[in-house]
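Hello Y.,

Per our agreement to keep a running log of every chain we model this quarter, I'm adding this entry. I've kept the format consistent with earlier entries: sequence first, then predicted structure.
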Amino acid sequence: MLQSLTTARPDKVTKGSLCASLYGFLHQVYDCTTIWRCTSQRNMSGIMTEKRPFFYGWVILIIGFITIVGGFICRNTFSVFYPAIVNEFGWTRGNTALIFSINILFYGLFAPIAGAMADRFRPRYVLAAGAILMGIGMAGCSLATERWQFFLLYGVVAAIGLSMAGWAPVATLLANWFVRKRALVFGILGAGFGLSLISASGAQYVISSFGWQTAYVVIGLFIVLLIAPVSIIFVRRTPADRSLHPDGMTAEEAETELARISEYRAASEWRKKDWSLWSAIRTRQFWLLLLIWLCSLGVVEQLAVSHQVYFYLDAGYTPMASATFYSIFGICFAIGNLIGAFSDRTGRERFFIPASLISAIFIALYFVMRDTTTPWLPPLIAVGFGTSFGTIPCVLNATLADLFHGKHYGKIAGSMLVGFAGGGMLSPWLAGYLHDITGHYFPTYVILVAAMVASAVMMWFVAPRKLNPIRQY
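Predicted structure for the entry above:
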């Protein structure tokens, strides 16, 4: 868990490059500032007051947040592109939704590879390469006129790019820097995902004003310029690369924590295991978590991302109003992720199960949203569904890290996204197909409610409270 306490992996920077010059300048400024602060804090006896150094992990967290926001704009704006593409080419909803389904499929299939790349190679180059691939895929969609072109550019190229600059590599990176407050860290990352949903309103404005082709180019360029430069310049794999320790601990605190962890892990067979992907897949908990990923993040989240705007359009709301409700959902989803950090104190399933059931209740309100005669209902659903469901990714990722963190965590986290891909690939197409044959989304609402209830039940049987209870710091 804390290999970074003792292992250093220096990150070399090529001399003479612009990035190296900028890095050197910032490093000198930081050193001078530190010396000045320490000197100014000498007490009257001339003894220097020891100050805890700035923890570079917060920089890594900020970059991870930026990467999640920028990267998932690629996926989370599909909901506003979806009606525009259907209207442009006259394709059915089911066939058009396959574009999104293929994106989810390749994202999930490539995620274990992306996680392994983050384990093996320098994460800054992995993230930057992923951002460039995403930008190429998104901008290339502006030239697409056939479904197979969308399948290739958005479904394959952009999806592989998102895998490389998406959740698995970023979560793997941050798990090296933070140990004590993982739910908080994952909550902040999840908030980034929620904020990316807000981009739907901006994308809708560009689509309405300049066309969907221009919107694809703008988003593609934005992703590359936002993620690639900061990743290359500032990202470092472990605290040891900056002569630091996880969570900003001092050397003495790190030694104490390492001894505490050794004692803690030795207390049970589960905690003292050095988990690999092979040993993890032989446990019941791995498969239950995989199914929860499939139901909650695969089915529910991806249906919300791909079809939610159409839920409101079919009830009679305008495209801009529908995109606004979708953005409200995104804001509340971000807030929910931060609320999920309280699972660090309450325990994972004690938080996850009620949140899942509350989400199911708010989803059920879609059954009564038949027209525009209840204008208070869409914002109520967006707030309630967004906030309660927003806690789910945070707690779920923290549970996985609690149970299986180690030097192979990137592969294990990436494998979870295979389950996510299974649900995410099938559900958007199925919802579109069911709408094509029934003319409404009622069957989809049933699927959403059932998936949340099933997730709550399965988390009870994962029982992280029995295997690795939350420690209070």
